[in-house]
Amino acid sequence: MVKMNRNIEYALMALQFIKGQAQGRPVSVKEICDELSSPFDSTSRVLQKMSRSAWLKSAQGTHGGYVLDEDLFAEVTLHNLVELISGGLKLVKCIEGNCDMTASCNIQTPVNRLNQGLIDYYKTIFIKDLLSNSKIDTRISAQVSL
Fold first, then answer.
1. Measured distance CA(129)–CA(11) in Å, rounded
2. Which end of the chain, N or C, is surrounded by fewer C-beta atoms within 10 Å?
3. What integer pLDDT is reported at residue 24 of this predicted model?
4. DSSP code for 138
5. pTM score, two decimals?
């Protein structure tokens, strides 16, 4: 089963919340966590990563917080988010090189092709479309060839 990393969920939830605020209004991590019931430390870390990548602008001080960079955000794909937050999509241990069955494994090639197909598909999903309920083609075969 393919599961989304919890930190990616927090990132998407925070982006959706920030996107729903008045344009240009900074949103604090505390405000996000209080509204979404997400853990402060994890949410703060993903917001910092997105800020370092310039997807979010951060403002310091009492009225500080995070603001979405709309122009840059329009170009961010699900693949970009997965790469930033969790280091990439890796369906199985052998993709990371952490498998002690490598010598006897007979599914490395098909699993690597599947992993690459999912990566290619994630590159076609823009976060702005995902969060705006825009139509997203969910047919992987229409997007990539496995």
1. 15
2. N
3. 82
4. -
5. 0.84
